[in-house]
Amino acid sequence: MDRHAVKGGGSGGPARVVLYTIPGKCPLCDEAREILHGEGVAFSEVDIRTDRGLLRAYREEIPVVTVDGRKAFVGRIDPDQLKAALRNPR
User: Fold this and answer.
1) Helix, strand or coil for residue 56?
2) 4-33 average pLDDT score
3) Most C-beta atoms within 10 A of its C-beta, which of 21, 54, 75, 83?
């Protein structure tokens, strides 16, 4: 499966894509995971319950997808907007 090559911050390497979620308790998170996998995006997943700060910040917003540390999506992910975000990280 091809991975989207995403230019990242100052290093010129690939962007870091993170999915913030509560596994098993969030249907929108499952949908976001499927879209990311379906688009061939390499990403890491963080269970917000492991950090009180993340839980406070994202409890009402999950799933949250960040690209290079910036929020790219909250809730549903639009595949076309995902492709644009990966081509043009801010």
Assistant:
1) helix
2) 75
3) 21
CB 66 within 8 A of CB 41: no
Structure-derived torsion over alpha carbons of residues 89, 82, 69, 32, reported in degrees to the nearest 10: -170
Spans of all domains in the chain: 22-87
Beta bridge partners of 19: 45, 65
Give the Cβ contact number of residue 46 at 10 Å: 17
* CATH topology (fold) of 22-87: Glutaredoxin (3.40.30)
Question: Vertex 64, ends 28 and 41: CA angle to 5°?
Answer: 85
Tokens found for residue 27: 């249907």
Identify residue 19 by its one-letter amino acid code.
L
For the chain, the average pLDDT equals: 84
Q: Could you tell me if 75 and 28 are in contact, meaning their C-beta atoms sit under 8 angstroms apart?
A: yes
